[in-house]
Amino acid sequence: MDISATSDRFAVVIDDESIILAGMEIMLDTWGYQVLAAEDVETILAKLPGRPVPSVILSDYRLRDGWSGITAVRAVREAVGMTVPAIILTGDTGAELLTAARTEQISILHKPVQPNDLRRQIDALIAAAA
């Protein structure tokens, strides 16, 4: 575990590909995060009550059941009542996504994302929100 990470850091991760979800969960855990990870937004929203406010939300862009990363982040933010820093991980480069992300104050990282790049982005977002 990274000694610079604090145990009060809590990440929400949403990705409908189980192997990616598991990898993200393991990586964030090694960085010292508590992690709530699920393949769908409904599971996240059901498990969120009683947990701390997330430090960061990480989501794939294209999710199941008509959800997008944008709507997923919006739902989690509404559930906790705060504009939590968020990153969408995607291969999509469309102008519509970029405009929506900018409007919702969500960062975009294009796949493939290197772990060090992701960590720097997470750290920067959390620092800016503090």
Automatic annotation (TrEMBL):
Gene3D superfamilies the record matches: 3.40.50.2300
Chain positions with 4-aspartylphosphate modification: D60
Annotated coiled-coil segments of the chain: none
Keyword set, alphabetical order: Phosphoprotein
Pfam families, A to Z: Response_reg
Keyword Chaperone: no
Biological process (GO), any one: phosphorelay signal transduction system
Domain annotation Response regulatory: ranges: 10-126
Keyword Phosphoprotein found: yes
Alphabetized InterPro entries for the sequence: Bact_response_regulator, CheY-like_superfamily, Sig_transdc_resp-reg_receiver
Name of this chain's protein: Response regulator
Species: Azospirillum lipoferum
Native organism taxonomy: Bacteria, Pseudomonadati, Pseudomonadota, Alphaproteobacteria, Rhodospirillales
